[in-house]
């Protein structure tokens, strides 16, 4: 899962990046409104955490532009405690949720996970797809009820397929949500991860539709 953190306070941004990474997100950062507007408008994110007090372009303006331009990513806004008018404006402008600073990182992660699940049409944290069980909160995977050890990268891939289990996911889309902006995004790397997961999970879990992409197998 891919997240964009829009926060000009480097200390807070780094804390958010670490927390989201520990929760299974691949986090990227933007430190001003203009950069955020460009990144959010041209890249596909599963979650955006947006501070409203930004240099160059304020967060509320960025939010309004994103929604007007068709950006559908779930957006969690961060506001100063007591700034209730900002929260109302943010929700009215298209934000999906908000947190007032200072906040507990555990609450932010819980809200982030809930937004991603709802965006994928999945209200629950635990999902059963055929032989596969995925717990998005605890970041665990089981096959036929038996826990299976996977790497963070492998979990992100399975989680993304789980949240989009009703469609075939193209390789390019998977690569975008697995890797950061500075990482190499090569198709053969994706194929290697898929091959490792198939060895771990066994047959009948990850299917390939030639020329289109990957999806999770469902029982007939």
Automatic annotation (TrEMBL):
SMART domains associated with the record: REC, Trans_reg_C
UniProt record, GO biological process: regulation of DNA-templated transcription
Keywords for the protein's UniProt record, in alphabetical order: DNA-binding, Phosphoprotein, Transcription, Transcription regulation, Two-component regulatory system
InterPro entries: CheY-like_superfamily, OmpR/PhoB-type_DNA-bd, Sig_transdc_resp-reg_receiver, WalR-like, WH-like_DNA-bd_sf
Pfam families given in the database record: Response_reg (PF00072), Trans_reg_C (PF00486)
SUPFAM superfamilies named in the record: CheY-like
DNA-binding residues (ranges): 124-218
PANTHER family the UniProt entry points to: REGULATOR OF RPOS, RESPONSE REGULATOR PROTEIN CARR
Protein name, per record: DNA-binding response OmpR family regulator
Gene Ontology MF terms: phosphorelay response regulator activity; transcription cis-regulatory region binding
Organism whose genome encodes this protein: Allorhizobium borbori
Residues where 4-aspartylphosphate is found: 51
Domain called OmpR/PhoB-type: residue spans: 124-218
Domain Response regulatory: 2-116
């Amino acid at each position: 899962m891919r997240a964009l953190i829009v926060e000009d306070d480097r200390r807070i941004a780094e804390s958010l990046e670490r927390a989201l990474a520990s929760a299974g997100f691949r986090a990227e950062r933007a430190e001003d409104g203009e950069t955020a507007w460009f990144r959010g408008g041209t890249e596909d994110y599963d979650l955006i955490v947006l501070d409203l007090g930004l240099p160059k372009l304020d967060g509320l303006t960025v939010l309004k532009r994103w929604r007007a331009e068709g950006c559908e990513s779930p957006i969690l806004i961060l506001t100063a405690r007591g700034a209730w008018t900002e929260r109302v404006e943010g929700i009215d402008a298209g934000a999906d949720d908000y947190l007032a600073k200072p906040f507990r990182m555990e609450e932010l992660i819980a809200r982030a996970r809930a937004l991603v699940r709802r965006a994928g049409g999945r209200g629950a944290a635990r999902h059963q797809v055929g032989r596969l069980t995925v717990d998005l909160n605890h970041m665990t995977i089981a096959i036929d009820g038996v826990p299976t050890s996977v790497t963070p990268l492998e979990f992100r891939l399975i989680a993304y397929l789980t949240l989009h289990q009703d469609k075939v996911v193209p390789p390019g889309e998977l690569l975008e949500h697995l890797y950061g902006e500075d990482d190499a995004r090569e198709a053969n790397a994706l194929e290697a991860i898929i091959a490792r997961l198939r060895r771990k999970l066994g047959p009948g879990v990850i299917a390939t539709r030639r020329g289109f992409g990957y999806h999770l197998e469902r029982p007939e």
